[in-house]
Design goal:
By secondary structure, this protein is an all-alpha fold. It folds into two domains: 153 residues, Tetratricopeptide repeat domain (Serine Threonine Protein Phosphatase 5, Tetratricopeptide repeat); 160 residues, no CATH class. It is 60% helix and 0% strand. The radius of gyration is 22 Å and the shape is globular.
Length: 335
């Protein structure tokens, strides 16, 4: 069931055919349109084709609404959602307006609603537009909904095709998110994550993300038992302080629960905050990264981030004992 759904989600986002467990592999994303097929026909200028016979001027207006919604996603997600809702009325049963609405909700941190809209799009008449950025957001939404295996499958498909956006930062963000998700899954995932990260380090430099790439690679190497190579990579880092810029609101809240008295610590969980240009780590993985970066420079920060890491879902995950062991060692063997 999970494999079939993951294949269906890939087909949905990239427009590669009918939904089924045996859907074909992802096609190249380069040159993929941001519009559903009916709007692409209209843009091509065929005045006597299916477009004119079925939709006419009202159809052109609907596609204009959809294009305007797409353009407002970053700066005005509420308005983008409203415009896509209007487009849905003129494109009944089609997926593209649903996908735009889901992406608008992602930017508002309304992950559960976004997941429902992506799921509705699975039953739509048409495959939606193919777009690497939309696939990244679908993968994130799927992961936050708890369907981690499906999300990892989506990232595996996306990584080789992330260059379609001709944006090195986007590709690196995708690799970092995928690696954090894979690494959190256990030793097999950590090995795969280390391979992705090692390749990224050998490739084109990406200012602003290179330090996080090295820190996450060092973490995966340490988890895999290659402590010496992990130290070699970690020595490139000046410490944890610069990496703290990647902390999400949820991460900050965990830290506050560690350092503040119980009566002042926040108790209501916050949703992860999506940033188009910055990776979003799940399960508090960034705390584990920061703990590693602090290991030889700031023992207090090491302990704080390990405690924060163990406050999240990772406390029941495959690396919990590893983190508890590091925390005990930092306290001189005291649990």
């Amino acid at each position: 069931m999970a494999v079939a759904l993951a294949s269906g989600l890939v087909a949905l986002t990239l427009g590669i055919g009918a939904l089924s467990a045996s859907a074909p592999s992802l096609t190249a994303l380069a040159g993929a349109s941001l519009r559903p097929p009916i709007c692409r026909e209209q843009a091509g200028g065929s005045g006597s084709g299916l477009w004119s016979r079925t939709m006419g001027a009202s159809g052109r207006s609907v596609c204009d609404l959809l294009a305007r919604a797409q353009g407002r996603l970053e700066q005005a997600p509420d308005r983008a959602f409203e415009l896509a809702e209007q487009a849905r009325a003129g494109l009944p049963g089609q997926a593209a307006p649903l996908v735009v609405q889901a992406r608008a909700l992602v930017r508002k941190g309304e992950w559960a609603r976004a997941d429902r809209l992506f799921s509705q799009a699975l039953t739509a008449k048409d495959p939606p537009f193919g777009d690497a950025a939309a696939l990244r957001e679908l993968a994130l939404t799927t992961a936050i909904a708890g369907r981690r295996d499906e999300a990892m499958a989506l990232y595996r498909k996306l990584i080789p095709r992330a260059d379609s956006r001709h944006d090195p930062s986007f590709r690196r963000v995708v690799v970092l998110e995928a690696a954090s998700l894979l690494g959190a899954s256990g030793p097999d995932g950590a090995r795969e994550a280390a391979a992705y990260l090692s390749e990224a380090r050998r490739g084109e430099r990406c200012p602003g993300l290179d330090d996080l790439t090295s820190a996450l690679l060092a973490l995966e190497l340490e988890r895999l038992g290659d402590a010496e190579q992990a130290r070699v990579v970690a020595r490139e880092l000046p410490g944890p302080w610069g990496l703290e810029r990647f902390l999400s609101q949820a991460d900050q809240q965990r830290l506050e629960r560690v350092v503040l008295p119980d009566d002042k610590a926040p108790s209501v969980p916050v949703a992860p905050v999506f940033r188009a240009r910055s990776p979003l780590f799940l399960d508090g993985e960034l705390h584990a990264v920061l703990a590693l970066a602090a290991a030889e420079r700031d023992p207090g920060s090491l302990r704080t981030h390990l405690e924060a890491y163990l406050l999240g879902p990772a406390a029941a995950g495959p690396w919990a004992s590893f983190a508890r062991g590091k925390l005990a060692a930092s306290r001189g063997g005291r649990r």
